Amino acid sequence: MTKPITKEELWNQIKAKFYQEIGPVSFDTYIEPLIPITLTESSIILEVPADESTDIIDNWNKSYAMSFVQYAMEIAEGFIKPELRVADILPKTMPLTSENLTFTRESDLNENFTFDKFVVGTGNENAYAIARAVAEDPGRVYNPYLIYGGVGLGKTHLMQAIGNAYSKTTPSARIKYATAEDFLNDFTESLRAGEGATAAFKKEYRTVDLLLIDDIQFWSGKEKVQEEFFNTFNVLTKTGKQIIMTSDKLPTEIVDLQSRLTSRFEAGISMDIQKPDLPTRVAILKNLAETDGLTIPNDVLELIADKIDSNIRTLEGTFHRFEAMLRFRNKPATKETAQQILGDLNINQGFKITVERIQQVVADYYMQTIDDLKSTSRKKDLVTARHVAMYLTRTLTNESLPDIGRSFGGRDHSSVLHATNKITEKAESDARTKEMLDALTDEIKNGK
Considering only CA atoms, which of 178, 155, 133, 142 is closest in space to residue 265? Predict the structure, then answer.
């Protein structure tokens, strides 16, 4: 996904599109009974009623999966694969207790998220190297391990690759993957379930060998769940168990995240994943084509890779749209077909967002120069312009804090963090600042 959205919001919008496409009878039979359970960067788990599962799953595979992917691309601006799971059967009248409390499944790993299928490039090679080291000796090196970066860059893939690798070398290991939202929901349900359920929750999460938690920024401002994870974290690390997490930013940048949590995270190692460069994007597309048994000329792959430089999810989503046209619309694998898809997605419109473009637009707005933004001058207007440019670079690109600092005259990451926090606070309290930032963003993206 490249657009923040909850599983309920995504599913409700997709349901509306299905209703318009297939009509009320098919909708009530094959769409309405499904319940969204978990949403990650690349997939959504939909629960299917057990007594209708065979018919629904067969029809989804034949008729609805591809439509879902296309709808998800329009709504969430990224490739999301639907995965159907048959519901566990429990009597509907059974009260919620510690005995029938159901948690997120213990080892909910995507078997496709392996090291072999992870394309390594300049933007992720360090994170990949650490991940391989963790998989070989979990709990002893780099514990905890936090992978951070923008949406759709492969954080979940790399994290789950560790779990999949370790499960093969140590089949008896208990490995648990959960999103931060899953952890919160399980914790909340355990509190609701009454006596004994909290103990069951603790046993579920504190007796694993490898705990994988996705998107910890979701806990921002949620004090009780942070407290629970703090205790879980301490139990696991004291017993030599490995914790791996992902986030869209460094823990110190997450608003209202307890300082004692961030200090625990800093005891391990944090590694960022950046946007893939052009050769890496081409390699990703080649890998997708080979996996799906397609032969696509290099010039076509290079065209798509050159236009899609935001993140891997968008790149994969565009490729799957391209593949759909090849397979289902009998289109040839040519540059013309690729151009048509890119045009449909509005990929060819707008400007390429780079640090240099952001610097130029902000410098022009404040009647400064790019050299001024990089200078050591502390003039008030110039400092404001510099802070705005750093803020926009942080929000509009996937550049890391150190890289942004280097682009602004060799400043350190703490200076960039201070600048972005200051502008964020001002935008939240001052409507004019918010309007100014929106106008600059529009200028950077669209030239207007």
Answer: 142
DSSP secondary structure letter of residue 110: -
Residue 292 belongs to domain spanning: 278-344
- Report how far residue 75's alpha carbon sits from residue 57's, in angstroms, rounded to the nearest whole number: 23
pLDDT in tens, 261-305: 998 898 899 998 888 888 888 998 888 888 778 888 888 888 888
The answer on pLDDT for 94 being more than 50 is no
Instruction: Examine the domain organization and report whether 247 and 340 are in the same domain.
Output: no
**CA distances from residue 99 to 79, 105, 174, 221 in whole angstroms, order as listed:** 38, 16, 21, 31
Contact present, 362 and 408 (Cβ < 8 Å): no
Q: Which residues are part of a known binding site for ATP?
A: 152, 154-156
pTM over 0.70: no
Token reading at 45: 């788990």
Point out the domain boundary residue: 243, 272, 301: 272
Residues 242, 367 within the same domain: no
Instruction: Name residues whose C-beta falls within 8 Å of residue 409's C-beta, 6 or more positions apart in sequence.
Output: 373, 374, 375, 376
CB burial of residue 403 (10 Å; 0-12, 13-18, 19+)? middle
Give the three-class secondary structure for 243.
strand
Whole-number Å distance between alpha carbons of 71 and 64: 10
Residue by residue, DSSP assigns 364-382 as HHTT--HHHHHS----HHH
316-319: list long-range contacts, CB under 8 Å, 24+ apart.
316/42, 316/79, 316/284, 316/288, 317/69, 317/73, 317/77, 317/78, 317/79, 318/342, 318/345, 318/347, 319/285, 319/288, 319/289
Residue that is last in its domain, among 296, 321, 344: 344
Instruction: Give phi and psi for 210, each to the nearest 5.
Output: -145, 120
